[in-house]
């Protein structure tokens, strides 16, 4: 399954919406996503499962790139 992760790069700072970034990751579930990203010290705001039409829409975006972890 493919997940879209919204995060802040610095977990020590207060989250600011304008600084929110996203990445795409293949994982079995949300816990697996968090385990794969735990060494990056991100402040994870939201993890969203992409499927169906929404996945198709995201894959058409030029920003779509799966992270290799």
Automatic annotation (TrEMBL):
<keyword id="KW-0804">Transcription</keyword>
<dbReference type="GO" id="GO:0003899">
    <property type="term" value="F:DNA-directed RNA polymerase activity"/>
</dbReference>
<dbReference type="GO" id="GO:0003677">
    <property type="term" value="F:DNA binding"/>
</dbReference>
<comment type="similarity">
    <text>Belongs to the RNA polymerase subunit epsilon family.</text>
</comment>
<protein>
    <recommendedName>
        <fullName>DNA-directed RNA polymerase subunit epsilon</fullName>
        <ecNumber>2.7.7.6</ecNumber>
    </recommendedName>
</protein>
<comment type="function">
    <text>A non-essential component of RNA polymerase (RNAP).</text>
</comment>
<dbReference type="Pfam" id="PF07288">
    <property type="entry name" value="RpoY"/>
</dbReference>
<comment type="subunit">
    <text>RNAP is composed of a core of 2 alpha, a beta and a beta' subunit. The core is associated with a delta subunit, and at least one of epsilon or omega. When a sigma factor is associated with the core the holoenzyme is formed, which can initiate transcription.</text>
</comment>
<keyword id="KW-0548">Nucleotidyltransferase</keyword>
<keyword id="KW-0240">DNA-directed RNA polymerase</keyword>
<dbReference type="GO" id="GO:0000428">
    <property type="term" value="C:DNA-directed RNA polymerase complex"/>
</dbReference>
<dbReference type="InterPro" id="IPR009907">
    <property type="entry name" value="RpoY"/>
</dbReference>
<dbReference type="GO" id="GO:0006351">
    <property type="term" value="P:DNA-templated transcription"/>
</dbReference>
<keyword id="KW-0808">Transferase</keyword>
């Amino acid at each position: 399954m493919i997940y879209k992760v919204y995060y802040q790069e610095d977990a020590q700072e207060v989250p600011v919406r304008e600084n929110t970034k996203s990445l795409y990751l293949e994982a079995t579930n949300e816990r697996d996503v968090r385990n794969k990203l735990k060494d990056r010290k991100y402040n994870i705001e939201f993890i969203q499962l992409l499927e169906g039409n929404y996945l198709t829409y995201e894959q058409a975006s030029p920003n779509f790139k799966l992270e290799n972890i």
